[in-house]
């Protein structure tokens, strides 16, 4: 027996062999607020306090806790100091059972996906207990290894400082300073807390792995040992015979189609005998067992004979004639072309041409919640899938195909998601869990461990981009030609779309008379590449923004001025032939950043922002600024029908519900939808409930990708709410015999002729008329044209400019990003607190992409096989972020809004590399930045 | 398949040694466990029968000045060493090194004994202890012995201790004296593997009259298969006036003496050569500066 205290309660419990503290807390004590992100002692999500000290419970043997006191997130609220006063005007929204730290995290917008939140809060709590008068430096030191992939580090830091102040003084937690929309409406453009923030702050939020069903089995997947091979034989009998194993399935056991995919069905659910293994993550067999440990042991008993084939490990090799074909269609997924004018004529007409080749690396989303799917057969013969997915309806379709069922027999019930960033669009374990659940008749959970997550899901495309630009001596661009190779890995996923964006964005947000781009999206034996925040536009613009600085230098023109001269504006024609008619705020972004950067640089004694500034007493530390701009489409575009449906219902208690299948992955869509409906009814957002991601209960909002949801589902919800409001108005107008325009909605009441009618009464009236108080609206975004046909390829673009100040250590080559000044044209800032989170996270992800992140693959074999080999930015690497919101509304967007989810990361990367050049004269053409290269190129060091 | 069957919270050193010797199957010591647990979970270490936990043994968690020496128990976690006033005073290099290992949570459990016991050529704590001329106390059922730190290592990841019969009780570090000081620095790569490209610990004694380096000890990791002192470099610097010329001489010798290699995704040999010079210069300078600050503080 061991005895421990958990959240102040004595617990006596029999120890179990091999149990970690995290498992004891989560599985046996049901305290699922403690999250498991890596089981490598790397991410800090599982942090709990043992005798007051933060430890990672995933690497802490449970039995060591014998005699110790454990604090988990569930126990924190009871430790609120008595002296502490709650936030005055917001206390009704927050309830009473919150610790000041929890309250501060909510009010400061420090919670997004929420998966890291318990670990953050507990780490911070230990720090405040140890040092009540903590500083920013203390926070950064203490939270160094408590990672947040939504990367709201600045908000986390400020929340902790505010909470510490409140605890020390007994005063309420000070609210943050947030830039609101320049023209806030009643709810839109103002502060609104995430509706899920309280449960995420208190640890009651349930993510998929937190769910347990009676009789649930645990699944594991046997994957390939080779990146390219033919499966010669497969023997699963020993695994089947292992006690505790309930089911082992191979390709022949799939009742329906064996291939899945989002666009092209080319990805085998299970590789069959004689078939081709195309990457290390390919599945050969699946096991369901009574425990995860038994399932894992069963995998070791499966004997697979594979005959290795030549590994195609890069897209250039893949296009060579003698390269082995990985798919029947060959290795070319798509040759993508952009044509405008005649580039040869443009180059002939130019005074100067520059040419260079750039390389971007593979990166991983590294969302802190690894993929988890639970499939549960129901008594009426259906299958429920519990999963955090960015495209619930696509999951339903793909699961049904594999089962050989009509789609409606499958119900996908989306759960809270611990981040996605594009990495939860493809199938992970959904189909495998469903197949096993179908055969066994029992619920089956398939949880990826971090290593499996890193191996299996699609990554960001690595690219090679050859770029040639021509310009006049005055800086006017005459022609841009690009040739891109994109490594789409083993399967198509969204490769064609991603590389399409890369190609179309490869000449940057500039106007030029001649442009030609050719992109080869190639299959290889690397892990598949697909959607990832920035979606190709990131890679393409790294190259051009780097080149623009080279051109500015060659022409002796200020780099900002060169961009200003060529920037897209209203009236410009893009390289795909789209005339921009509105909502093109690039110039304002550029001007704002230019002015702020020059002001800051001047204050610091820079001769020019782009000149090197050595530190007075440490001349080997050299600072400088770098500048970059970007644009990014909102929505699919390219002729793809882009629609979303939402349903809004008024309930008898006067509250509203918005329903759509669109996904909440931490980015804040639910908050936006809540605000939209509240705005239309002029009621408090707290009276609006939002239900998402359930294919039985919510209409299809389409994929959560392409920065599209605020726009499309936001519009669907808005029009549904508006239509419902009009229907209610009609009912009330008839009932009270008033003209409809005399009926107003104020504070959740309808005002008719001086009477205030609770909205719930309208429900009864409508029902009495035989009308349902709900409206489903299918919103179709403005039509777009396919690439190559001219016209509007996209219905909206977001624009951004950034200036980054770096410090380069000339002795070591180390680069530190100090400050990032950002301006984003978002059309309209609907949800300023959420917007702040997207901007902070976007910048930090950009810093990671430039400096720390690299998913390394060697000959098709991932070297990055664990989180310890994938460095994502932590709080100590987070720069100061100064943000400007620019609002050039787009006519069809909800209240003028367009997407912001992706654009922020894009300019950060080239702005950093441009700043490095300005500091030490080293051009970076390959990501991530190599500190060795910097030292080597600075001088004759070695 | 459980990763371990039995977990034994040892109360004394002999209790731990007995549990190790008497376990019916494989038995392994566990201190902080931040490496061992991961190795077990990731299948890099086969499952074991018994884990013998040594983190609650009072003798091994002591951190004190004992008979004119600084004693640091092998089970003292890194965070406690970093924050310890007496370690900061007498073994600054170790305090710094321990503050850089892992992250804050890991430092609350990972122990100095674990850092040394893994015998990795660039373990931060180990490199600092080596330059500080530390000795380890090793216990077996037969008795105790003291071993100079460098003699604990047989090869990369291989210690000279008997894994079933011996354990590290703790480390003795000579107390600092007037005009002595130490320093530690390291360089990391922000991508890939979170192991130092190079780390450097320096201890020196300054001759206050002549402003010369009266004595010096230098350890750089990884500069060979095992953590070690760079004695040629030390000899070159010993007795020299502290100036740029001396530093340059030191840098020249260090590159000759250390056996730097290219490691995949971490650093090239050439970068290590260059960085060894930078780190040696910066670490020596810091220790030299501190030796002035330490003038008289230990009397």
Verbal overview:
- The complex is a heterodimer of chains A (942) and B (299).
- By secondary structure, chain A is of the alpha+beta class.
- In chain A, the strands form 9 sheets. Chain A has a 7-stranded mixed sheet with strand order 8-12-6-19-16-17-18, sandwiched between helices. In chain A, strands 2-1-5-3-4 form a 5-stranded mixed sheet, with helices on one face. Chain A has a 5-stranded mixed sheet with strand order 14-22-21-20-15.
- Chain A is globular and about 75 Å long.
- The model of chain A has no long low-confidence stretch (mean pLDDT 97).
- Chain B has 3 domains: 4-53, Uridine Diphospho-n-acetylenolpyruvylglucosamine Reductase, domain 2; 59-174, Uridine Diphospho-n-acetylenolpyruvylglucosamine Reductase, domain 3, CATH 3.30.465.10; 180-293, CO dehydrogenase flavoprotein, C-terminal domain (Enolase-like, domain 1, 2-Layer Sandwich), CATH 3.30.390.
- Chain B has 11 helices and 13 strands.
- In chain B, the strands form 4 sheets. Chain B has a 5-stranded antiparallel sheet with strand order 4-5-10-6-7.
- In chain B, helix 5 packs antiparallel against helix 8 (124-131) and helix 9 packs antiparallel against helix 10 (244-257).
- Chain B is globular, with a radius of gyration of 19 Å.
- Overall CATH architecture of the largest domain in chain B: 2-Layer Sandwich
As a percent range, the share of strand residues of chain A is 15-25%
Most extensive protein-chain contact, per-chain counts = A-B, 55 and 44 residues
Q: What would the principal axes of the Cα set say about the shape of chain A?
A: globular
So how many helices of chain B? 11
Quote the average pLDDT of chain B.
95
In what order do the strands lie side by side in the largest sheet of chain B?
A: 4-5-10-6-7
| Helical/strand content category of chain A | alpha+beta
What amount of the residues of chain B lies in strands?
25-35%
Provide the CATH superfamily of the largest domain in chain A.
Answer: Aldehyde oxidase/xanthine dehydrogenase, molybdopterin binding domain
First CA to last CA of chain A: what distance?
62 Å
The structural class of chain B is alpha+beta
Q: Mind describing the biggest β-sheet of chain B?
A: 5 strands, antiparallel
Q: What is the alpha-carbon Rg of chain A in Å?
A: 28 Å
Residue stretches of chain B low in confidence (pLDDT < 50, at least 5 long) are none
